[in-house]
């Protein structure tokens, strides 16, 4: 099998360098999981405006032997195109639960974790079983796991999404609608989706200022979420102005580089010391977590 693939990499004058590069990356991705090169980083979510930490989002990274630490934009499209996302995604669910268990045993029993699902993974028949297995293997209470699906994925086949999310939320798992505002939600379906959270897409946060269209959109999303009894998370918070404004608009939870970057798992417990509910104020303000 391997030889067959290598056969392709002999020089062919017509071969586009980019295509060859992609092909090599796909070959590498096939082995990345077995070679233990996949990692989860964890980005904290804070109760607005500045804590405590209410949970973490698991974000996939690939420690490539030659190319270094890769972010999902480089390899996720390939994982989706090849179907590898299913086994990688299953690994992510299990690994996030395993890590959460480690933190719980260290005393952080209220921490929770959110995992991103790609469209293919969301629609795959074994998803519910994978989730049940990961929760039971690592003894994680279901309500401490959140599954994030993008608005676009959720609205692709709304009836099917309602069915899948109902199965998942009946386990006690929470559902979050990611990158909200960039897709085309039918409000009728949004009302019926058993989600507990909307995440406002970073695009609306980026240039957020008072009296702008983005501010109006964020207010409208917050109002919609309140009507539907959903929490609102703002992602991509990078400045104190955004932090303050989003809080004043009614976002319950904030996530972004200002408050905390995605961290390797072993760096996360240091956060606990900074962001407990009764931390001194000056620590909150002067100690950005890197
Ligand atoms: P997402 O779920 O919307 O995650 C938020 C992305 O924004 C992350 O990028 C995060 O590192 C980045 N981010 C957070 N705060 C800030 C900020 O203040 N400024 C800026 N500029 N960016 C910020 P990342 O880790 O590169 O992930 C990109 C996307 O890849 C994610 O978007 C998610 O859709 C997908 N993804 C990540 N991990 C997984 C995974 O395990 N499985 C699947 N299926 N998709 C994943
Ligand atoms: Mg997400
Ligand atoms: Mg998002
Ligand atoms: Mg995104």
UniProtKB/TrEMBL annotation:
One of its GO terms (cellular component) is membrane. GO terms for molecular function: cyclic-guanylate-specific phosphodiesterase activity. Residues 22-276 form the EAL domain. The keyword Transcription does not apply. The keyword Ribosomal protein does not apply. Keywords: c-di-GMP, Membrane, Transmembrane, Transmembrane helix. This is cyclic-guanylate-specific phosphodiesterase. It comes from Pantoea coffeiphila. The lineage of its organism: Bacteria, Pseudomonadati, Pseudomonadota, Gammaproteobacteria, Enterobacterales.
């Amino acid at each position: 099998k391997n030889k067959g693939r290598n056969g392709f990499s002999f020089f062919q004058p017509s071969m586009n360098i980019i295509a060859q590069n992609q092909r090599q990356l796909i070959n590498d991705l096939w082995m990345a999981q077995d070679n233990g090169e996949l990692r989860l980083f964890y980005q904290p979510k804070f109760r607005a405006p500045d804590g405590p930490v209410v949970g973490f989002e698991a974000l996939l990274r690939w420690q490539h032997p030659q190319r270094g630490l890769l972010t999902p934009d480089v390899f996720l499209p390939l994982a989706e195109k090849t179907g590898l996302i299913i086994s990688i995604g299953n690994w992510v669910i299990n690994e996030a639960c395993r890590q959460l268990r480690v933190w719980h045993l260290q005393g952080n029993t209220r921490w929770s974790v959110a995992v991103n699902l790609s469209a293919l993974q969301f629609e795959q028949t074994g998803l519910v079983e994978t989730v049940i297995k990961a929760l039971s293997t690592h003894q994680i209470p279901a309500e401490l796991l959140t599954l994030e699906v993008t608005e676009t994925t959720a609205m692709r086949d709304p009836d099917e999404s309602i069915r899948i999310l109902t199965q998942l939320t009946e386990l006690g798992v929470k559902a979050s609608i990611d990158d909200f505002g960039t897709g085309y939600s039918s409000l009728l379906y949004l009302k019926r989706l058993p989600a507990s959270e909307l995440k406002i897409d970073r695009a609306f946060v980026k240039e957020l200022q008072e009296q702008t269209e983005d501010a109006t959109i964020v207010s409208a999303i917050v109002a919609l979420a309140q009507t539907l009894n959903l929490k609102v998370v703002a992602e991509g918070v990078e400045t104190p102005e955004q932090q303050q404004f989003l809080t004043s608009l009614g976002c319950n939870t904030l996530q972004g580089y200002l408050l905390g970057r995605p961290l390797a798992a072993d760096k996360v417990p240091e956060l606990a010391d900074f962001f407990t509910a009764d931390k001194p104020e000056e620590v909150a303000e002067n100690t950005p977590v890197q």
